[in-house]
Task: structure prediction
Amino acid sequence: MAVVRIENVSRWFGNVVAVNDVSIDITPGITGLLGPNGAGKSTLIHMMSGFLPPSDGAVTLDGEVIWRNADAYRRIGLVPETESTYEFLDGREFVRANAELQGLPDPGAATERALETVEMTAAADRPVGTYSKGMRQRVKMASALVHDPAVLLLDEPFNGMDPRQRLHLMELLRRMGEEGRTVLFSSHILEEVEQLASHIEVIVAGRHAASGDFRRIRRLMTNRPHRYLIRSSDDRALAAALIADPCTQGLELDPTEQALKVEAVDFHRFAERLPALARERGIRLLTVSPSDESLESVFSYLVSA
Ligand SMILES: Nc1ncnc2c1ncn2[C@@H]1O[C@H](COP(=O)(O)OP(=O)(O)OP(=O)(O)O)[C@@H](O)[C@H]1O
Result:
């Protein structure tokens, strides 16, 4: 059983703190690493794969420090986010290069096995430069799998894939998880993570924001206060009506925007009460728009929760 332990890990680049005192255990099965762009997902994955040392804290595989540890590298496979494939190599050569690097006793057989696993045998003689996005992803996957690692790390593997390629990769990862491998993939899309991961770790602005199964993460996200920008025929009267109702918690009349800013704590009640209150008072609602539906704000709520 392979467990990657991230213990009080920080990583900085000059003045930029990419990862800030994160502690997570990655256990067998599929874990989704969820977070907006720039959250520190790639940095974490690079430390787990031994590409990068932590500035502080420890990243270990079954108790052994991963950085500069050849034994650990043999048990880890990485599918990087970058398209750093050698276009002139054919698929087979590309996968075999990693088999040779790993010093496998029979690199040829290992290459064929890995190509078979990702169903790329038929296209293995074509140069990587002619592959579609999904095929590249699969051949990178074959390269990461060639040494049969217990830990498989994938950085944004679904980026740019069409639905069919996505399904195919999901199936493959599910199989890897069922085989008892420790699989971790990063994504900034909750739905993607939801479909595949039995466990989710959320990273925001370098910090560990939440963890649990997707039900728990969804609940945390939908229970957060929702902010709205409202314009009406009488903002002041509407504010007075809303403030008396428990569905709101914060209200602000914004003279520059000529609008009312509302923080709704009970989303369903708010959606019901707002039109009713306006109707009762003869107020016309002109604009009701959510002002914080960006992924960033959803995630930052999790950090402060
Ligand atoms: N080599 C580096 N030098 C300087 N800053 C870096 C370096 N690598 C990452 N960073 C910074 O660290 C922060 C986290 O970046 P990281 O790539 O880990 O995030 P991410 O969650 O993977 O985002 P994305 O999905 O956009 O790649 C960002 O602010 C990024 O600019």
